Amino acid sequence: MPSRGPSPLLGSRSLREDYLRPGHRETIPRHMILIEEQIAQQGLPAPVAAARTDLPRFQHLFTGGELYPPKVYIASLELGKSEKLNGANLAFDASVLILRDKLLAAYKGLVSKIRRLLSREIDMLPPQMLQSFAESWHVWESAWLENREVHAVEALQPLCKAILSLEPLLLSHEKEQLLAWPRVQHQKAVTLKCLEGFMHSLSEFSAHVLPSLSREMNHDTRLLVLMEHVLAHKKTTSMESCLAGLSSTPNVTFPDDGSSAPQGHVMGQSTVGSNTGTSLHAYAFRLMGSMGEAPAKGDEKKVGPPPSMLSRKAPNHASELLTAFENIKDYLLSLKSTLDAMDAALDQNEELLGHLVRFERAFKRSKRLFLEPDNLV
């Protein structure tokens, strides 16, 4: 069988390494300007990828107005088989790498001609080579940007789920304000289930952008209910929250033995309507004393501990946790209209991580104090 001969693209890796070396890397911007000028002077067609305008996420790459931005070409030289977003390696399609190698080959052919043009050995760059470069750039850039958009959409899925799970929670809370008793009590149970759904989505999102040591592994929604109960009975503290009044949700039970979850309870499983356990009022009374309130009806004969150090600290912890919850909720809602343009590398978003870390830290600290097994021993 006749030999097929070596592929012209087999040396693309060594070429990329050569072009990225300090000696040549600095010449790339000047070369791109010369190529653009020569195409304009010779009146050659220079197609522009529609993705430049169709995909807002990458428009920052083309703010300089260059036809062939040097930073984009350098990105092609640095392009690997995958890109890393939020800790996950997302592979590029094979066609993107092939088109990149063809662009590299077209540029390689122009390099020697550009040197001759700069030394005035020739008056212009060969139009066929310019045309080949322009077409190679166009098809590669289109495929590259579209592939990156696919990666971005995939990387943003956990964030999108967290934002979407907020809407039922807010809608249910708004309906509470319109209903009279006893229908409002049923709506509060719905709100609590929506809160459990949001906390489940938020936990999955945290797992994508935060290390395990910086986040809570099990977001028990009863902690938020308990903290809302604490603030509700602190006369000097007021906070507008979508969780306001949630502590009056009926049939929310806490463990009798002080364990952090009823037997068989798992994340995402509703804590409403359980036939076993202690009511919220009784649990808070046993844990922190009266906090200035009388025992619940039927519990008058039960003597609880006097207000303790934990009782005095509880309002501060409750305020910290619910404030952090409101902040992360509001920030997630603010991202809703910017998802198509935001950077998908969420683990590099300092503002988002700041809100998330503060909430996770406050949740872990309050959970350790108010829901750990030894609190009621």
How would you describe this protein?
There is one protein chain. The protein is mainly alpha-helical. It has helices at residues 12-19, 22-25, 28-41, 51-54, 70-78, 94-118, 127-155, 157-176, 183-209, 222-232, 280-288, 309-334, 350-370; strands at 82-85, 88-91, 253-254, 278-279. A two-stranded antiparallel sheet has the order 1-2. The chain has a two-stranded antiparallel sheet with strand order 3-4. A hairpin with a 2-residue loop joins strand 1 and strand 2. The longest helix has 29 residues, at 127-155. The N and C termini lie far apart (84 Å).
* Structural class category: mainly alpha
In N-to-C order, the SSE pattern is: HHHHHEEHHHHHEEHHH
Tally of strands: 4
**How is the biggest beta sheet arranged?**
2 strands, antiparallel
Shape summary: elongated
| Subunit organisation of the chains | single chain
* Proportion of residues in helical segments: 40-55%
Number of helices: 13
Beta-strand residue fraction: under 5%
Strand order of the largest sheet: 1-2
Mean pLDDT: 85
Total separate domains: 2
Low-confidence stretches: 1-11, 258-269
Termini separation comes to 84 Å
Specify Rg, calculated over alpha carbons.
Answer: 30 Å
Topology:
Layout: H1 12-19, H2 22-25, H3 28-41, H4 51-54, H5 70-78, E1 82-85, E2 88-91, H6 94-118, H7 127-155, H8 157-176, H9 183-209, H10 222-232, E3 253-254, E4 278-279, H11 280-288, H12 309-334, H13 350-370
Antiparallel strand pairs: 1-2, 3-4
Helix pairs in contact: 6-7, 8-9, 10-12, 12-13
